[in-house]
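Table S4 entry, FAD-binding PCMH-type domain-containing protein.
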Amino acid sequence: MSRLDDLAHALAGLGTRLHDQRLVARPRDVEEVAACVRAANGAKCSVSVVGGNHSGYGQTGDLVLEMSNFTEMQREGSCLRVGGGVTLEPLALFAQAQGLAAPLGTAPTVGLGLVLQGGVGHLTRSRGMSVDSVRALQLVTCTGRVVEVSGDEEPELFAGAKGCAPNFGVVVSLTLEAAPFRLCASARRVFPASGAALRTYMAWAASLPNDCSADCCLYFRDESALPGEGDLLMGVYDFNFDAGASGEVPLEKVLWQTSRESLGPKELMAHEPYLLEQPEGICKTGCLSTRSFFVRACFVRKDADIADVLVECLEQAPSRHCFVHFQHTGGAVAQSSGVFAAAEWSVVISGAWEEKTEAAAAAVRAWVLGIVQRLLPSSSGTYATDLGPQDVALAKHSFEPQRLERLLDLKRKWDPENMFRHGFPLAQLGED
Ligand SMILES: Cc1cc2nc3c(=O)[nH]c(=O)nc-3n(C[C@H](O)[C@H](O)[C@H](O)COP(=O)(O)OP(=O)(O)OC[C@H]3O[C@@H](n4cnc5c(N)ncnc54)[C@H](O)[C@@H]3O)c2cc1C
């Protein structure tokens, strides 16, 4: 019998199914999660977890655990305790109904993989990354043990595993600090893109106070949606969480603008200049159904001299659906727990392609990775959340050396056989 047969036999009562040489289970409670992991341990099988399913890595273990039954949410004082299968929009709506908001990402269908591994969104500059608001986890470790992890219980694992938690087990529930939220004022302005315009945006955005943030997106004009001139555009979206005014990026040639509107926590999602202008409705579905994506991101410092390079790279992009998004961080990130080294932006390089050919995919991947290489010297590292087993070279730049050593010690202690090996390649970083 193969290991998978052994595992299927051990999990016979749990309604598992075989798909693509993998066993897929949808546990209903923490005991079933523990039973699945114990059985995988006994059969020497790897385990991966599907949360919001935006990375693809969750689908690749010998045993795939789908967390869609873990969507419960409750308020506990100033915190929200949520199940390991919750996605961001229901979470933001639940918080909003309590008059609260937690710092989350900008796409509504993304799941807790974002919160466990970083989490950059429009509240990041004022409140830190999502991972900085995590107060406790309920984790099933590789032996099937259920562990409560917080500043009081298993504090070493709690502090150390931030930003890398999927490497240590299955998160059954998570407690997230939230805070009262006033409406935020927001407006979008679109300019012709150039190195000089991007430099002006960068200098202006870096000077904003912490309760304001401003994202910028370099993208190609979509003829069906945007009137105006110029092919490569620069959309700047500013968010003001205080009563004062953030002002506007000092550029005169505006192609298009929206009037200032008030946004609640839920509306803070799906506000990205490029995505808003796509006719396929990503803002409703969270993904573009007809395109494939390849994305990598770097944390870029405020003094980075990258404006001309980026515009030049975009002008040579292999597809009109390639774009670069500056997600504004800085502010509170620099003052918080420091999971990732402080930087002014998470610069997200996205390549999308429509033709379902390996050549199209390879061209886009090479373009994205080429930009990352050019940004690395001006960055404080790569963003771990996008990285998988094939990304060892990039993963070396995700955590500062001291933090990486600590993560590796924890990995040896809590997952010595590397059962949870299908996302960020932590164990491989210790093999050199
Ligand atoms: C359209 C789109 C928009 C995005 N926008 C943002 C953004 O605004 N800000 C940002 O910071 N990032 C963003 N990302 C990146 C995103 O944070 C990562 O892709 C993240 O890993 C996705 O998490 P998920 O739960 O949706 O995906 P999954 O593929 O389900 O999970 C990602 C990883 O986390 C693990 N995981 C998920 N849930 C659990 C759990 N309960 N227990 C243990 N491990 C778990 C999985 O095993 C996998 O390794 C975006 C990605 C996409 C595709």
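The first strand starts at residue 17 and ends at 19.
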